[in-house]
Amino acid sequence: MQEIGEELIDLNEDNKPTKENKSNKEKKPPNNLKFFIILLIIVLSIIILIYLYITYFSQQKKYKSVIILDFDKTITETDTFEQQINLLPTKEAQDELIKQMYSTENWLSVLSDSYNIFYNLNISIADINNSIDKVNYTSGMLEFFNFLKNKKSKYILVILSAGHSYQINRVLKRNNLNSFFDEIIAFNSYEKNGKIIFEKGNEFNCDFCRNLGLCKKNEFKLLKNKYEKKNIFFDKVYFICDGYVDFCLANNLTKNDELLIRNKFDLDDYLYKYGFVKDIKCNIDKWNNGFDLINFFDNL
After folding, report:
1. In whole angstroms, what is the distance from residue 289 CA to residue 144 CA?
2. Beta partners for 63?
3. CA-to-CA distance for 14 and 46, rounded, in angstroms?
């Protein structure tokens, strides 16, 4: 009887959990904890991937070429403001205002004062609008814009003008081109109570442009800074222009850029007749009309 009891005791002790078995059970995590850990790892991995994408992929530098066009006598065949001077009643008054334009100490003041002369002569905003509407595009320029529509993703398209935005936008609106350009840089102006109101432009320090009230080199610098903040960098500049006031920016283009000057217009004379072409670092091409520009860009 004693031996049988001892055997029973031995069997009970074998079935009794040891300290080692208890420890193993305590170390083994429950299933819901395993699931939580796996879920946490997946979420953290997704967060890290998103961070890497934002930091190293989406924020990578993007490079685009920029096409900058002057407006008057480039996009348009004639100067838009000079067209409005024809509203003055006498040839003497017209000549006097043109003389003032080209000898001024402040071009923005000339614009503002000229419109005040118009208003004093009872020349209305409707008269001014009718005059602006008579301005024609340069031959082939609309065809050139149509050509660029199929290549717009390649370029940033900019108008950079010493004219004012009211007249520029009115000309462009005629052919639904206001939204075609990524940027329109000019003296900011708008119509209010039948009068054209001008806003002061950006400050700059430039001996060449000191009388204009607008420096194209400075405006281009501001444009570059604006796009670089969005991580877009200009890898090449095409500057299409015609006038003396375009020299400041032309003179600051790099050897990688292209200067496209209108043949036998003011900038052409300034560069070649007076020897300032030696100061230009970039390549120079000449054009007569929009069809020449199509040929140029089609052969790139």
Report:
1. 9
2. 233
3. 50
Are the beta carbons of 213 and 106 closer than 8 angstroms? yes
Note whether 166 and 196 are within 8 A (CB): yes
Residue 119 and residue 195 in contact, taking contact as beta carbons nearer than 8 Å: yes
**CA dist 101 → 110, 164, 280 (Å):** 6, 14, 27
Residue 182 DSSP symbol: S
Residue 35: what pLDDT? 81
Q: How far is residue 156 from each of residues 59, 147, 214, 232, measured CA to CA in Å?
A: 19, 14, 21, 10
- Nearest Cα neighbor of 242 from 162, 134, 125, 145 is 162
Per the CB < 8 A criterion, the answer to whether 177 and 188 are in contact is: no
Q: What is the pLDDT of residue 49?
A: 85
Indicate the pTM of the whole model.
0.81
CB 218 within 8 A of CB 206: yes
Report the residue count for the chain. 300
Q: Express as a percent the part of the chain with pLDDT over 90.
A: 72
Task: For residues 107 and 181, give the distance between their C-alpha atoms in angstroms, rounded to a whole number.
Answer: 25
Residues of the chain where predicted confidence (pLDDT) is lower than 70 = 1-30, 53-59, 104-105
Q: Is 44 within 8 Å of 215 (Cβ atoms)?
A: no
Structure tokens at 183: 């940027």
CA pair distance 139, 264, nearest whole angstrom: 16
Q: Retrieve residue 19's tokens.
A: 């300290």
